Amino acid sequence: MLQASPRVALFVTCLVDLHRPTVGFAAIRLLEQAGCQVEVPRAQTCCGQPAYNSGDRETARDLARGILDAFGGYDYVVVPSGSCGGMLRHHLPTLFEDDPNLRARAEALAERTHELVSFLTDVMGLDRVAGAFSGTVTYHDSCSGLRELGIKAQPRRLLEALGATVKEMADPEVCCGFGGTFCVKYPEISTRMVADKAADIAQSGAETLLAGDLGCLLNIAGRLKREGSAVKVRHVAEVLAGMTAAVPPIGEAG
User: Fold this and answer.
1) Element holding 166 (H helix, E strand)
2) Is 241 helix (H, G, I), strand (E, B) or coil?
């Protein structure tokens, strides 16, 4: 049964912390408006996905133990990232297959972990948020958010209820080419993928590109900037929280 005012821990993510803190503040605003008690555990670190995807299970397990300690005792853990959310929900428990106690703790944490927009709609039952936004937007479905967490319709529903006009790309579900370490290991392939994504965004005719993963957004914003595109790039939380005036679009000087 959903509590009237659940105690929620915000998993900030490395990229939000280092590149776009406004996303974290936007997440807190949205969660508090939804009636949650929000805390940001100071001991949190990386979700461990870079190490996990690179085959460094020992480092990933060390990080996972810290996550279990930092985020225990909360009703929910909320992440403004489908990528990090997917790591916590689906992969964290697999790191402790040889330790039943830690495995049980990891599974319990995974069950309480949700991506931000999915949590607002699917758990808290919101069909709209406060504020308004009248611009035209197109939405990029990040790989982990879409395929691991089932995030597709939720952000679009909230954006349309906010007053935004959603102009779909021809292929919103196609990867942008970031993929964490993928863009470092395979730069030529990654560059071609993000170029195709930029062309798809341009053909949509939208003024603003939105997504729920900062890695995708940084990658796409960099390509759009190099092409001289006028499309603005933002994390969906900034628009939903009414914080677009607080920070310039990603890739633009303040």
Assistant:
1) strand 165-166
2) coil
What are the tokens at 225? Answer: 């900037």
Separation between Cα atoms, residue 6 and residue 47, nearest integer Å:
23
Q: Is 246 exposed, middle or buried (0-12, 13-18, 19+ CB in 10 A)?
A: exposed
CB 146 within 8 A of CB 82: yes
Cα 37 → chain centroid: 20
Query: Nearest to residue 136, comparing CAs of 177, 164, 157?
Result: 164
Q: Please name the residue ranges forming H helices in 121-186.
A: 143-147, 153-162, 182-185
Under a CB-based contact definition with an 8 Å cutoff, are residues 84 and 149 in contact?
no
Which pLDDT band holds residue 3 (cuts at 50, 70, 90)?
Answer: low
DSSP designation for 45? -
pLDDT at 187: 81
Q: Which band of pLDDT confidence, cut at 50, 70 and 90, is reported for residue 179?
A: confident
Q: Is the pTM of this model over 0.90?
A: yes
